Amino acid sequence: MTITSNIYVMPLTSSNHINVALNLVYFTVTLCCSLFFNFYAASCPTAELIVRNSVSSSSSSDPSIPGKLLRLVFHDCFVEGCDASLMLLGNNTEQSDPANRSIGGFSVIESAKRVLEFLCPGTVSCADIIALAARDAVALTGGPMIQIPTGRRDGMVSVASNVRPNILDTSFTMDQMINRFSNKGLSLFDLVILSGAHTIGTAHCSSFRDRFQQDSKGKLTLIDKSLDSSYANELMKECPLSASPSVLVNNDPETSMVFDNQYYRNLVINKGLFQSDSALLSDNRTRRLVEDLAKDQQFFFQSWGQSFLKLTTIGVKTGDEGEIRSFCASTNA
């Protein structure tokens, strides 16, 4: 069975995205499988509220939580689909891959799951909790609150070797990013919009160290000329060669705790933290869209809802597929 959702879509090929946003094309998108809006209305009516409260309370004590939850949903959905495979613990699971060792937010998902298992045992999947928590993280930090369908089931396979061929690296070229997104059914438009997730969150120094090199005196120097020199100097101060691997910097140097369009405003003045960020401005296929998003936050918010919906329905398991785990860190078997 399928469901349909009436949403607005802005064509990427327009020469003026701001004007297009005012004359949106209204059409129907068919979502895969058996996802439904308000899926738990009868079986667990407080499910979404419980997830939202878990995100809110955790974020109150740790402001980094929203960024962690947003990163979590990306890393989960790009490997095995949105099925909470990233939550599974064990030898050689997805969490074992170095790219996932810095992923956080698991405790928020587990906290919500414990409450839901008490109130509605065997009903709400960990996969749905991850998608809802990321949705709520955006709204909590000032972004749009959007409705997403639920009914995902939890996967039973989690293998470390599946991680690298599927996720993105911060050093990727535009063509590499397009290829990975295309493989997930996501467009060039989705690539630019979903990159806006970097408007919140933090990054380890190693994730952008390739933009610098060590000179003959043992100091870092800038080699990536697409990066603003003053911003580069700030980054070198925050991340010297002697910096601990645990040192973090904000993805967005201006409004790091607010989900807004500052990310795109940073890009147009060459202050994108990652090489993959800067590629969005330097590539003629995406530059105009970046510039339009930098000028119009409402356009970004409307577009975010569309692309986030697509992200959170990648490879979902429904019906008889997968299971509803009792604990997110292990299968029921």
TrEMBL record:
Chief location: secreted
Checking PROSITE patterns in the record gives: PEROXIDASE_1, PEROXIDASE_4
Transmembrane ranges, per UniProt, are 20-41
Active-site residues from the entry: 75 (proton acceptor)
Give the UniProt subcellular location, in the record's own words. Secreted
Q: Which cofactor does it need?
A: heme b; Ca(2+)
Cellular component aspect of the GO annotation:
extracellular region
- Please state the Enzyme Commission number of this protein: 1.11.1.7
Site, as annotated: Transition state stabilizer: 71
SS bond partners: 44-120, 77-82, 126-328, 205-239
* Gene name of this polypeptide: Vigan.03G243700
Annotated heme b binding sites: 198
Query: Bound how, and how many: what does the cofactor note say?
Result: Binds 1 heme b (iron(II)-protoporphyrin IX) group per subunit.
Q: Which reaction does it catalyse?
A: 2 a phenolic donor + H2O2 = 2 a phenolic radical donor + 2 H2O
Record Pfam families:
peroxidase
Q: What InterPro entries does the record point to?
A: Haem_peroxidase, Haem_peroxidase_sf, Peroxidase_pln, Peroxidases_heam-ligand_BS, Secretory_peroxidase
Alphabetized UniProt keyword annotations: Calcium, Disulfide bond, Heme, Hydrogen peroxide, Iron, Membrane, Metal-binding, Oxidoreductase, Peroxidase, Secreted, Transmembrane, Transmembrane helix
Q: Which GO terms describe its molecular function?
A: heme binding; lactoperoxidase activity; metal ion binding
Q: Write the protein's name.
A: Peroxidase
Query: Which residues of this UniProt protein bind Ca(2+) 2?
Result: 199, 252, 255, 260
Tell me the SUPFAM superfamilies matching this sequence.
Heme-dependent peroxidases (SSF48113)
Binding positions (Ca(2+) 1): 76, 79, 81, 83, 85, 94
What the record says about family reads: Belongs to the peroxidase family. Ascorbate peroxidase subfamily. Belongs to the peroxidase family. Classical plant (class III) peroxidase subfamily.
